[in-house]
Amino acid sequence: MTWAALVVQIKKGSQGDAVIGVQEEFQFRNLSGDPSRGPQVYGIFGPKTDAAVRGFQQALSLAFLP
């Protein structure tokens, strides 16, 4: 099995378990102590999840798609 077979790409509009996994990671790393400040964990890749992902990518100087 290769990494390509294990990696699931998600984007704005995606839904399901992979999105829930990303949202849970952002909530786990939410140091504010206020769950409403991060993306809610509900499995839909919406504007808050998009903003969190882009902020993470920018903080690590990663390239991201428009």
Question: Can you describe this structure?
Answer:
- With 66 residues, this protein is mainly alpha-helical.
- It has one domain.
- It has 3 helices and no strands.
- It has helices at 3-6, 17-28, 47-59.
- The protein starts with a helix and ends in a 7-residue tail after the last helix.
- The mean pLDDT is 85.
Secondary structure class reads mainly alpha
Succession of helices and strands = HHH
- Residue share in helices? 40-55%
**DSSP, total strands:** 0
Outline the biggest β-sheet: none
Q: What is the percentage of strand-forming residues?
A: under 5%
Averaged pLDDT? 85
Number of helices: 3
Radius of gyration: 12 Å
Question: Looking at the structure, what is the overall shape?
Answer: globular
- Beginning-to-end CA distance, first to last residue: 30 Å
Uncertain residue ranges = none
Q: Any idea how many domains?
A: 1
What are its keywords?
66 residues; mainly alpha; 3 helices
Compile the SSE list and pairings.
Blueprint: H1 3-6, H2 17-28, H3 47-59
Give a short summary of the structure.
The chain is mostly helical and 66 residues long. The protein is 44% helix and 0% strand.
